[in-house]
Amino acid sequence: MITPFNLLVVFGITFYARGDSDIITIINLIWEVDNKNRSIIHIAVLHRHASIFNLIHELGSIKEIIVAFVDDEDKNNLLHLAAKLAPTDQLNLVSGAALQMQLELLWFEEVKKIMLPSFVDMKNSEGITPRELFTIEHKELLSKAESWMKDTANSCMVVSTLITTGVFSAAFSIPGGNNDNEGGTPNYLQKPAFLLFAISDAMALISSSTSILMFLSILISRYAEDDFFKSLPMKLMIGLVALFISIISMMVAFSSAFFITYYHGLKWVPNFIGVLAFVPVPLFFVLQYPLWTDIIYSTYHCRSLFRPNKYMLN
């Protein structure tokens, strides 16, 4: 019978087994079922153990038999189990309800790929299909994901708007003033620092505007379940990267403008201020680093969990 102990045994054997007898042991455990007719693969899906679930790809024709097992009690197939809400410890692998929702959708889609077409829309004893069960089980998580995504987008959009306003004004407040005798040409037009100011100010304006558009598209999204699979996390990532670029560009524009304006006085002052101006850049990176890593983990790394680099039964 399948017990939590069996699950741990298979988990250990998967990584440390090398001999033919160990492989035979794994195969035998895969055929074992609990009192609800659920195999080790079913238990792995229910508890979100990707390493054990990946064994299904190495079973050949046996796979079609294993995935056809149906729960004797509720008539749930493997996809029904993937539609159930994951245990709390697995959900907490990533922070933020939106990213947790993305991880749940990823599990559902990966299990769906190996199911026979007739099992995808199969109804359980309550007349519920796997997709309908997923919607029911994740209703509360979906609501939390929508609130989390809106709050994050709103906060970031405020910062992007402030940057856009500032760099737009700076574009028409030329550092060093204009030469009225030459048709209003900037006095320091030929200096490298002025060119640096012009380019960085333009980049700050473009990148901050891009981040505003990304966060705005998040706010006006329909927030359907499938939107959390790729669309919304990707928009959030692009918006955060654009915001980070805009902050760097804004600091470069400020430093170069300060250098142009005050370099003729105490030369060490603009140099010192220019260096000091970049303090917010690493600070922003450090503060947002956990969010970035969670987005990258749930969007890219979690997908690699279902594509192991080597076969475990060889």
UniProtKB/TrEMBL annotation:
List the GO terms this entry assigns under cellular component, sorted alphabetically: membrane
List each copy of the PGG domain by range. 147-260
- Name the source's superkingdom: Eukaryota
Question: Known InterPro entries for this protein?
Answer: PGG_dom
Span of the signal peptide: 1-19
Question: Which residue spans traverse the membrane?
Answer: 153-174, 194-224, 236-262, 268-287
The UniProt keywords, alphabetically, are: Membrane, Signal, Transmembrane, Transmembrane helix
Q: Per its UniProt record, what Pfam families does this chain match?
A: PGG (PF13962)
Record PANTHER family: ANKYRIN REPEAT PLANT-LIKE PROTEIN, CASKIN
Q: What is this protein called?
A: Ankyrin repeat-containing protein
Q: Recall the taxonomic lineage recorded for the source organism.
A: Eukaryota, Viridiplantae, Streptophyta, Embryophyta, Tracheophyta
